[in-house]
Amino acid sequence: MTQSRKDIDFDLNQALEDLKAGKPMNGKDGFLTPLIKQLTEAALKAEQEQHIAGDEQPARTAHLQDRQISLWEL
Questions:
Q1: Rounded to an integer, what distance in angstroms lies between the CA atom of residue 31 and that of residue 20?
Q2: Tens of pLDDT along 30-63?
Q3: What Å distances lie between residue 14 and 5, 17, 19, 20, 38, CA to CA?
Q4: CA pair distance 39, 67, nearest whole angstrom
Q5: 3-state secondary structure of 50
């Protein structure tokens, strides 16, 4: 699922201004904190969606594991 521009919290222009002004990059008041938060939330959401949709994947994974085992037995 893609995000629309209005869902993006990080403002690159503001971050560049903060960088020029010498503000901290990370931490509670860091200018990269909103970006880090957004990326972390997106990664967790994608992992959760993959886990929920993963009902079809275990059979494929087991098949690949069997194949790997048989290759090692050769």
A1: 11
A2: 999 988 988 999 999 998 888 888 755 555 555 5
A3: 16, 5, 9, 10, 16
A4: 35
A5: helix
